[in-house]
Design a protein that fits this description.
- By secondary structure, this protein is α/β, with parallel strands linked by helices.
- 23% of the residues lie in helices and 27% in strands.
- It has one domain.
- The termini are far apart.
Length: 86
């Protein structure tokens, strides 16, 4: 799967990627996208029924939105606070 980045992303210090977890791993398109960026610049937000991302190494942060527990608001608040440094 090829993903084409349109536009200039030079100078961007941090990225936020949001996508689904499939069968215990990131969806194929998310894996492909992440390979194009240094993990140390990526905040990863993953949605699932109740699973968590296993490979969390190297990311700026990893946030798991669990549909079953309805923790979306708390996860987004945590992400925003971490971005604001509060």
């Amino acid at each position: 799967m090829d993903i084409e980045i349109l536009g200039d992303l030079d100078g961007i210090e941090e990225y936020i990627f949001v996508g689904p977890l499939w069968a215990g791993g990131l969806a194929p398109a998310m894996r492909t996208l992440i390979m194009q960026f240094p993990r140390e610049k990526v905040h990863l937000v993953v949605t699932s029924t109740e699973s968590h991302v296993e490979d969390r190494s190297g990311f700026l942060s990893v946030h798991d939105v669990e549909n079953k527990t309805g923790n979306e608001d708390a996860v987004i608040e945590d992400l925003v606070n971490s971005l604001l440094g509060t």
